[in-house]
Design goal:
The chain is of the alpha/beta class. Helices cover 38% and strands 20% of the residues.
């Protein structure tokens, strides 16, 4: 079995998706936020590409339990209930609710993964749990880093490295070059992944916007046992 890492959405061939176990990463912040929301009791998450699509879907569903969440340019979308800070998604806010979310990078990556044999959402917080589930699938694994506006993102690459490292404890894999380099990069920063995230382009952007606490939160390894699964356009906790 093989592990392959793609550092952006550009140039991912269909054969890297079809019949593979896919792990999508947007650690700052979509996949961390979705993991946190599900852990807090959110019933399901529906990823969409645009704010307009989110608003139209809420109107069509006519369900008072539906919340809108997401960001553009790292900031909460005007008129939405929530932004993209995982710390907003507390049990008091999201338990028993349905969430429609749109983000600049993460929801695009999730949609691109459709067609995978199994599509999981990975972050630092749930990395060990996601690796265990992915390994149990006994299939080739493709890890997709969302990146930042189609550019390489260190924080997603670091998280990919964590996943490769964890997968290596679960079974025997052949590592493609991207997976090997991601693992080695994680090993270089495993003692302080938060510092590496703070130094990334996206991390520095969030800090400049007063969102440094989010970067710290998203860098914590193994704090969640929740494994989000994307299937049929909806994300739910693996049950």
């Amino acid at each position: 079995m093989e592990i392959e890492v793609f550092t952006t959405l550009n140039g991912i061939p269909d054969e890297a998706i079809n019949n593979k176990t896919i792990i999508v990463i947007d650690v700052l912040r979509a996949t961390t936020t979705i993991t946190t929301a599900l852990a807090a009791g959110c019933l399901e998450v529906i990823p969409v590409l645009t704010p307009e699509e989110a608003i139209e879907m809420r109107q069509r569903l006519e369900d008072e339990r539906v919340l809108l969440g997401g960001e553009r340019n790292a900031l909460k979308i005007p008129g939405f209930d929530l932004g993209n800070s995982p710390q907003e998604y507390t049990p008091q806010v999201v338990a028993g609710k349905r969430l429609i979310i749109t983000t600049t990078n993460g929801t695009r990556a999730i949609r691109r993964a459709a067609g995978g044999r199994q599509v999981l959402l990975g972050a630092m917080s749930n990395g060990p749990a996601v690796a265990r589930v992915a390994a149990a699938g006994a299939a080739d694994i493709t890890i997709i880093c969302s990146g930042t506006r189609d550019h390489f993102s260190l924080e997603d690459f670091l998280t990919a490295g964590l996943l490769v490292e964890e997968l290596g404890t679960q079974g025997e894999y052949t590592l493609r070059d991207g997976a090997r380099v991601a693992r080695d990069y994680f090993r270089l920063h495993r003692q302080n992944p938060g510092a590496a995230m703070m130094e990334s382009y996206h991390g520095r952007l969030l800090v400049s916007l007063g969102l440094g606490d989010d970067v710290d939160y998203c860098s914590r390894v193994g704090t969640a046992a929740v494994v989000p699964v994307y299937n049929g356009g909806i994300i739910k906790q693996l049950g």
